[in-house]
Write a structure and sequence with these properties.
Order of helices and strands: HH
Number of helices: 2
Structural class: mainly alpha
Shape: flat
Radius of gyration: 16 Å
Distance between the termini: 45 Å
Strand content: under 5%
Largest sheet: none
């Protein structure tokens, strides 16, 4: 069978992605540190 934690995580991810309007609002209020690019 499928581990219960895998099912729980997939349900959590689906619920989180369904709340896009809240995520957009939060991204405007909570400004995270932008890492410097260390590549070519």
């Amino acid at each position: 069978g499928i581990p219960l934690t895998l099912i729980g995580e997939s349900v959590f991810s689906r619920c989180l992605s369904a709340q896009k309007d809240l995520r957009v609002k939060a991204s405007k209020v909570i400004a995270g540190k932008k890492p410097a690019f260390k590549g070519d």
